[in-house]
Amino acid sequence: MMRRHHAVLVILGAAIVIAAINPFGLQQGLFVIIAALLVCCAGFLYGWVNGVLMAVLFGFTKYSFAAQPDVISLILNSAFLSFLGVFSSMARGAGKKERTKRERENDRLFVNKIINSMMAAHEMLYEVRSGINRETMLRIFGTNLSNLLDARDVFIYKKNGERFELDFCAGMKKIKPSVSLSAQAVKGALARSISASGFPEFSDEKNGFLLLLSAGEENGTGELAVICREKPFEYSDIYMAEFFTAQVFMIVENNRLFEEIKINYESLVQALSLAIDTKDHETHGHSLETMCYAVKIAEKLGLPREEQERIKYASLLHDIGKINISSKILNKPGPLTDREYDRIKKHPEEGVSILKKLNIFSSILPIISHHHEHMDGKGYPFKATGEEIPLGARICAIADAYSVMRSDRPYRKAMPKEAAVEELKRCAGSQFDSRLVDVFLEIIGDEEQEGFAAEKMDEGKIRMAN
Ligand SMILES: [Fe+2]
Questions:
Q1: How many CB atoms lie within 10 A of CB 212?
Q2: CA-based angle 382:385:386, to the nearest 5?
Q3: What pLDDT score was predicted for residue 366?
Q4: Would the CA dihedral through 318, 365, 396, 310 be positive or negative?
Q5: Distances (CA, A) of 256 to 14, 260, 432
Q6: What is the mean pLDDT of residues 436-459?
Q7: With bands split at pLDDT 50, 70 and 90, how would you rate the model's confidence at 392?
Q8: Residue 385 has what pLDDT?
Q9: Which has more confidence, 117 or 461?
Q10: What distance in angstroms lies between residue 216's CA and the mean position of ligand 1's atoms?
Q11: Which of 4, 71, 269, 368 lies 20 to 30 Å from 82 when distance is taken between CA atoms?
């Protein structure tokens, strides 16, 4: 089957032959112009080889049908037309090369935009992991989107029934956004560059262009981003914005779920710690107080946020294993027998066996299991020494001991602050990590103990309630 370009070449060849024969008796100059145009077409469309072939065809045809054949004329005509054919081909090549170059530049810009949006999303994810609230997250989102798209304003809406309600504004705030958009109007304007003047809710913005992007509607928590800028949005802008927005809204949704899980986690921890203190009623509030002291030490040490969180929850639950111990032993007014003490010493491991049933507690188990270890290896249950004892457990041990010493027990009254401090100093290096004792003494030295504990306990209750 003859291909299309072959057919075109045959037609061009026939036209060249007709022009060379000049059956209509046209003026010499005119048929040369026609021939030149045909050769140029062949060269431009199908390359210099076909252009030259057409030129030679013209020359030989003209030579063959000439009343007085002239070789010089043949060569000159063929050469001139061949030059035109080659030139046309080069022009096409140059044009093609230019277009390819432009396409490559567009591709490069497009890839850069996608990479920038990925980096921006990655930075946002990092910020989320560092702990930021929704408003901060949306502000960063709006700023990134403005930078990526050279936008003037970015508005975030949250879906509420059949409407999108304005939730957040970022940018130059050059226009007054509509506080509410109908879902139907939004649906017809999504993911395309639209003139603001054609969108009634933004009709104040006569000269701008809008891009509307939505995400998360499938789970009923839909969010909408409205991006405004001076120039229309190109395909690459829309693709990049969709890519970035989808990632960010996914982060927003994950963060919301994470916050919910965290609240549930804190409620669970609080309930468990209350259960311990309720059973060991003489030390009511001990878990919370231990947590407050431990968190203060962790903060003073400048530990990473995640480590601080681990220490916080572990110190709240450090005695969870006591739930399995008889209240008679826990609340015994006199000294414990060896057997009773052996029973008590099992509570770190029993705490671990209770909590390990829930994966969410896995990271705090080492602190729970080691909170009665001593630096010199004379603690329990593993007789671990020095750095073998997790840092969180060494911190918890000091906070626990200080809280116990400062509380009334069934068999003795609370120790005065000075006596408790002296006891910590005496045991520094043997029972406790001396560096951490120094840090703790610095903390309690800065504040009046009673006021500090009360304040911290209140703060702790507020934190837990949150
Ligand atoms: Fe304990």
A1: 25
A2: 145
A3: 96
A4: negative
A5: 74, 6, 40
A6: 71
A7: very high
A8: 94
A9: 117
A10: 46
A11: 4
Q: How far is the CA of 287 from the centre of ligand 1 (A)?
A: 10
| Interval between CA 74 and ligand 1 midpoint (Å) | 110
Q: What is the largest CA-CA distance in the chain?
A: 139
Pair 396, 446 in one domain: yes
Q: What are phi and psi of 230, to 5 degrees?
A: -70, -45
Q: Measure 248 CA to ligand 1 centroid, in angstroms.
A: 44
Cβ-proximal residues to 197 (8 Å cutoff; 6+ apart), any chain = 203, 205, 206, 207
Looking at the structure, tell me whether residues 197 and 69 fall in a common domain.
no
Expressed in angstroms and rounded, the spacing between residue 351 Cα and the centre of ligand 1 is: 9
Within 13 A of 272's CA, how many CA atoms are on the CB side?
Answer: 22
Report the C-alpha gap between 63 and 366 in whole angstroms.
101
pLDDT at 95 over 90: no
Q: Answer yes or no: do 162 and 310 share one domain.
A: no
Using the predicted structure, report yes or no on whether residue 429 has a pLDDT greater than 90.
yes
SS3 call for 180 = strand
pLDDT at position 465 is 35
Instruction: Please tell me whether residues 361 and 425 are part of one structural domain.
Output: yes
282 Cα: distance to centroid of ligand 1 (angstroms)? 14
Q: Tokens at residue 128, please?
A: 């989320």
Ligand 1 mean position to 260 CA, how many Å? 30
- Domain, as residue range, for 364: 280-465
The count of structural domains within the chain is 3
Ligand 1: distance of its center to the CA of 348 in Å?
7
| Residue 391, CA atoms < 13 Å, CB-side half-sphere | 14
pLDDT of residue 372: 96
